[in-house]
Amino acid sequence: MIKVLFTILLICLTVTTIRAEVMYVEFYDVFFVDENNGWVAGLYGDSDNTVGGIVAHTNDRGNTWKIQLKGPKNVNLSNICFVNNSKGWIIGISGLGQGALLHTENGGQNWEWKIDDSFFPVAINFVDSNEGWLIKNRHDSGYGKILHTQDGGETWQVQLDLGMGAVLDSSFFLNHKEGWVVQDYGRIYHTVDGGQNWDKYDSDGEIGCISVYFITSEEGWATGRNSTNYNPKYILHTIDGGKSWTIQSVLENSWLMKMYFADKNEGWIFGRKFVKKIDPVSNTTSELIEGGMILHTDDSGRTWQTQFETEKPLNSMYFLNGKSGWAIGRNILIYTKDGGNTWATLNYPLSTDETGVSPIMKLPVTWGHIKVIRGDNIGK
Predict the structure, then answer these.
(1) Minimal CA–CA distance to 178: which of 199, 156, 160, 158?
(2) Which SS3 state, helix, strand or coil, does residue 133 take?
(3) Which residue in 125, 174, 117, 175 sits closest to 146, CA to CA?
(4) What pLDDT sits at residue 370?
(5) DSSP-derived secondary structure for 18-31
(6) 188 close to 201: Cβ distance less than 8 angstroms
(7) Cis peptide preceding 313, ω within 30 of 0
(8) In whole angstroms, what is the distance from residue 366 CA to residue 29 CA?
(9) How far apart are CA 348 and CA 64, in angstroms?
(10) Roughly how many angstroms between the first and final C-alpha of the chain, as a whole number?
């Protein structure tokens, strides 16, 4: 009799237990520390209408993935930075304009995050386990800040407060001392002393840089747009550390995004197609961003050739060196081992198997206007 009752109870528990399934996922960034170990981060949606950030890890070059984290809720994770197999950071933004900063000390097995109620991050750069920079904008106005840490992100100090009207877009740090931060529509900030002082430069004319990459203290490239053409179709080049820029290429019908250069000759840019369509009925023009593409140069950016095209939107690209690279977007993950001459499609890092997902443990702690959420394991 006891055995029968236990069986009935077990059946009831099994029937009434409902687990939310991942119904939607899109990854917005990819980062690798070596040929095998990498991470992707983005946004997921469950069958119970829960949405939030998601992180997955691979140890076999991207062939298989394990979901490490689902959470925090209502946050889209967008930018990854790791300095080794253990220590990494991810930034994101919520639908309310709040910023999120995630940190791991053990390769993503456990995560700690902080929520900023006033500013959202747009870029993060670490040069080692302790020193890094965080680029932030205020969610309700154009108000940019550059922050610096020397303790792995436990505390941050404002190095440059740009005030109203300064919308920062991206950053690049060559080493502990030298880095660049670009502002929308024309302004570039450059430091040679780790951010203690920043010089201000202007890009060519009315063109503002939205991404930047340097291979030396003098030579670098940027993608940009002007005030009359919203799409970033310009590629700019500098040989004096950013003091002056020349327009190197104009790629019409392109939405150019992140770039990488292996040396002074060879580089890659990923982006999307910028398409204008006319409605034959209303005769109105719509501007759309569609698909994805990866471009390659072997002559220092003077000319560019398309290496890869897809109808699926690409969101990010990462090259480990001049041979190994990955790109990820909406339901697409590709990999090259020969500098982009060929691209292989990999399995998209999504699994409804919850094995390995960090369990929930939230302990809010107030720290100024930052709400710090800590725990041995942090999940949704």
Answers:
(1) 199
(2) strand
(3) 125
(4) 30
(5) ----EEEEEEEEEE
(6) yes
(7) no
(8) 29
(9) 9
(10) 41
CA dist 237 and 249 (Å) reads: 9
Residue 250 and residue 255: Cα distance in Å, rounded?
A: 11
Structure confidence at residue 288 (pLDDT): 73
**Length of the chain (residues):** 380
Phi-psi region of 223 (alpha: psi -120 to 50; beta: other; left: phi over 0): beta
- Torsion sign over Cα 230, 231, 236, 242: positive
Q: Is 256:269 a contact under the CB 8 Å cutoff?
A: yes
| Per-residue pLDDT, 122 | 92
- Give me the pLDDT at residue 353, please: 41
Q: pTM for this structure? A: 0.84
Q: Using CA atoms, how far apart are residues 223 and 251, in angstroms rounded to an integer?
A: 10
Averaged pLDDT, groups of 10, the chain, 380 residues long = 37 40 86 98 85 94 94 88 97 84 95 84 96 88 88 94 83 97 85 96 76 96 80 90 91 90 96 79 74 95 95 95 96 96 92 36 27 30
Q: Which amino acid is at 203?
A: S
Q: What is the layout of strands, in order, in the sheet containing 22-32?
A: 22-32, 38-46, 51-58, 66-73
Using DSSP's 3-state secondary structure scheme, residue 16 falls into helix
> Is the separation of the CB atoms in 346 and 335 below 8 Å?
yes
